[in-house]
Amino acid sequence: MHGQTEGQPEPVLTRVWLLRHAETADPTVFHGAESDIGLSERGQRLAEELAPWIAAQRPDCIYASGMRRARDTAAPFARTCGLPVQVEPDLYERRVGVLTRQPFHAFDGLWEETLRRWIAGETGFAPEGAESFDEIQARVLPAWQRLTNRHAGQTLVVVAHGVVCKVLLTSLGVGFGIADWKRLGSVENLGLHELVGGAGRWQLLRLNYRPPTHREPPA
Question: pLDDT tens-digit profile of 26-40?
Fold first, then answer.
């Protein structure tokens, strides 16, 4: 372990609260990059309820992908924090091709086959019209690096998408790789991932965290 040189200040860590957008207006179907859908009433309400907790983290900036569901999720955070929503266009959701707006059960086999091949190391695989793991990684890692370099030593809130979050979590060296895709579980709507670090070294402190004030009572 490398210690801090005596007399030098401790490095200031960059903190990122990475989360998936709130529930969409139709949560029963695939919405890839091809579907720029907004939020459901429930999704909007839960985003509003989470906003004070986000503000309590005292973020320096709030970013969202350019897709409506991400921007609409970030909007109440920005209002509560008194910050603008800044758009990082390369964090858009995966292109899903024929899965677009199809019920989840309709193409279970196609998505399972995709995951099976990714986990086996065939990360360049994708059905026609869809993005492979490698293609997603090639756009979201540079976006992550741009944001965290630009705001080194600050706290960022980044609103993205389920697959984008999982590609980042399996690519940043925080203890998970592509083989852990299923072990990571589902990325919940508004589930928070807290990462700290910088200079290419990141630590995952919380995975799919739901603040106590943001947990809905049982039905």
Answer: 988 888 889 899 999
Nearest Cα neighbor of 137 from 165, 168, 113, 161 is 168
Q: Phi, psi at residue 24, to the nearest 5°?
A: -85, 170
Task: Calculate the CA dihedral of residues 89, 94, 97, 98 and round it to 10 degrees.
Answer: -130
- Angle 34-37-38 (CA atoms, 0-180°, nearest 5)? 155
Model confidence, pTM: 0.90
CB–CB of 70/161 below 8 Å? Answer: yes
Pairing mode, strands 155-160 and 192-198: unpaired
Angle at 210 (CA atoms; ends 204, 216), nearest 5 degrees: 170
Domains of the chain by start residue, with CATH: 14-211 (3.40.50.1240)
